[in-house]
Amino acid sequence: MTEALVITFHGLELADPSKADEPHTTESRYTLDVANFRQMMDMAAKSGCCTVSDLHTMPAGNYVVLTFDDGLASDYELAFPVLAERNIKGTFYVTSGNVGKPGYSTFSQLSEMSSNGMEIGSHGMTHSYLTTMTRANAAREIRESKQEIEQRLGRAVRSYAAVGGHYHRWMIEEAWAAGYESFATMIPGITRVGRQSVLRRVHIQHQHNAAYFDNLLRRNRLDLFGARMRYQLLYLPKVVLGMQRYDALKEAVTKRLKSSCN
To answer: Fewer CB within 10 Å of terminal CB in the chain, N or C?
Structure first.
């Protein structure tokens, strides 16, 4: 049996001491300091990391996979050099419609990363929740993002990650029909790899440190359970409110906290 611990990052940043006491915005809560990231990658380098697609050709065993969502500029500027220095491969899920926009990696940069062993996967065309779309539009988002990235990079795209990790079962069926080998969620846990795989992923956020990352690499049950419980607690209000209302409420609360601290 092949199993994998799949870990997700959302952007890196260089620490700014002048902003150390500022409350986090929604975006910054998902952004990791690059110095912290380097420490984590020193540990990951000893764990035999592979890409998502590599999992389907590996012999039975336990693997670590590092994934990066959104195709941000920091993927190329900060994450890629750290991985390359340590001979680590990662999978980068990019939103095809955002490639080349301010704050995002370009196709030229993605091509360089791909040529150096990184996998480029799809994160859709518009960075929209599939669960807010009709089946026809969701299928188009899944299929056409793959086609565009393949055309621009000249390489097959085999891995898909749903925005926010939110999905219905039929979306996985659409991904298989489009030719993907894997469909990434944000449900924490260990992934069992098959011919086609639905990935469970553990999310690294701003507050997580190297000790937490080390516990994940050791498959610490308490930390994996804690990640799953946090996911479940947030899942209910998302279902009740819907993703658009949930995001609006979260943004309003974050702004209120920030203004109260100023």
So the answer is: C
- Distance in angstroms between the alpha carbons of the first and the last residue of the chain: 53
Is the Cβ–Cβ distance between 213 and 204 less than 8 Å? Answer: yes
Count of domains observed in the chain: 1
Q: Give the predicted TM-score (pTM) of the model.
A: 0.89
Question: What's the pLDDT tens digit per position in 35-62?
Answer: 999 999 999 999 989 999 999 999 999 9
Placement of tokens 């999978």 in the chain: 91
Q: Is there a contact between 181 and 193 (Cβ–Cβ < 8 Å)?
A: no
- What one-character-per-residue DSSP string does 89-119 give? --EEEE-GGGTTSTTB--HHHHHHHHHTT-E
Round to whole Å and give the CA distance between 206 and 33: 7
Q: What distance in Å separates the CA atoms of residue 90 and residue 68, rounded to the nearest whole number?
A: 8
Q: State which residues form the domain around 188.
A: 2-261
Are 94 and 150 in contact, with CB atoms under 8 Å apart? Answer: no
How is residue 255 annotated by DSSP? H
Contacts of 230-235 with CB under 8 Å at 24 or more apart are 230/188, 231/186, 231/187, 231/188
